[in-house]
Design goal:
Radius of gyration: 21 Å
Helix content: 25-40%
Largest sheet: 7 strands, mixed
Distance between the termini: 54 Å
Order of helices and strands: EHEHEEEHEEEEEHHHEEEHEEHEH
Shape: globular
Strand content: 15-25%
Number of domains: 2
Length: 313
């Protein structure tokens, strides 16, 4: 019977994770980098909640707010330092769990150091899905510096067996572990992470430079205090441009260039309409004017040139 604060502009998986645990998502807008709008979250906590014994409760529902779940969208790291600073100064009990599925290799400047995404909160989650910067074919990884909770997570993902030989279980567990083959593939991919990150940076730089010459089009950039892994490059299409998002997708498809729309706003989706949404506007505009363009590390410079040329022909 608790609530979790989450951006509306994200893949559905973290929203489903909240609901699987019988908690309630509260949806928030995103900032210009497509990460959780931290200023809006702080405004909500200041003006729409009350406090009791360091616990924070939603004034509208009287449910406890137990967690904030930022998503590091496209590799851009959310401003978690500001969130942590607010929580510490107010001295309240709210956990931060990072969805770092898209941001392996991304960092944010914090207290004079570059801190990896997924390591700022109580937990971080990395995805090894087939479309991520490195892959094991599926699955992912949990990051935490809490040894007891790490041990508990490892216990739960292997059906909560208390004996490796005898079929004795002490809790309702899950079959969430990677196979040995998947784990070996993932470890092998880690050796190439630096080269993948360098290539992603080159691709982003190329798009920024070349698309800047096309009026009405631009590429989403990262926050100044963030070094992004540039997992995906997001094309921003001004409404005055000669093609809208759907027309651009169809045009590029006709040239055998595959694109995708960005995540749809979850607070507008059928399974989640019943849950609270707090003053969302920017994200709704972005879903109609943004497009994911080819960003694979396997793209050649000739491929990139073809993409850019096709945008405006």
């Amino acid at each position: 019977n608790t609530e979790v604060l989450i951006p509306t502009l994200t893949f559905a998986a973290p929203v489903n994770a909240i609901i699987y645990n019988n908690a309630y998502p509260i949806f928030f807008d995103v900032d210009k980098y497509h990460t959780l709008d931290v200023e809006q979250v702080i405004n909500f906590l200041e003006n729409e909640t009350y406090e009791k014994d360091k616990q924070v409760f939603n004034a509208k529902t009287d449910r406890k707010i137990s967690c904030i779940l930022p998503v590091h969208t496209w590799g851009n790291v959310c401003d978690i330092p500001s969130l942590k600073d607010y929580i510490n100064k107010r001295d309240i009990s709210i956990s931060i769990v990072e969805d770092a599925s898209e941001s392996l290799g991304s960092t944010i400047r914090f207290e004079g150091e570059d801190i990896h995404s997924g390591t700022l909160g109580e937990f971080g989650v990395i995805s090894f899905n087939g479309n991520k910067i490195i892959t094991s074919g599926g699955g992912g990884m949990i990051l935490t510096n809490n040894q007891d909770k790490a041990k508990e997570a490892k216990h739960l993902i292997s059906q909560a067996k208390i004996d490796p030989i005898r079929y004795v279980h002490d809790k309702v567990g899950f079959n969430y572990g990677l196979t040995n083959i998947q784990a070996a593939l993932g470890l092998g991919q880690f050796k190439n992470l630096d080269s993948f990150l360098n290539r992603k940076k080159e691709i982003h730089k190329y798009y920024i430079e070349e698309i800047s010459h096309i009026d009405g089009l631009s590429i989403l950039e990262a926050p100044e205090n963030c070094t992004s892994n540039y997992w995906l490059n997001i094309l921003k299409i001004e409404r005055s441009f000669k093609r809208n998002r759907e027309e651009m997708m169809a045009h590029l498809e006709s040239k055998s260039i595959q694109t995708r729309p960005i995540w749809f706003a979850n607070h507008l989706q059928e399974p989640y309409k019943e849950f609270q949404a707090y003053e969302i506007s920017f994200a709704v505009n972005e879903i109609d004017t943004c497009l994911c363009i080819p960003s694979s590390t396997n793209l050649s410079n000739e491929d990139l040139s073809t993409v850019v040329t096709s945008l405006n022909d």
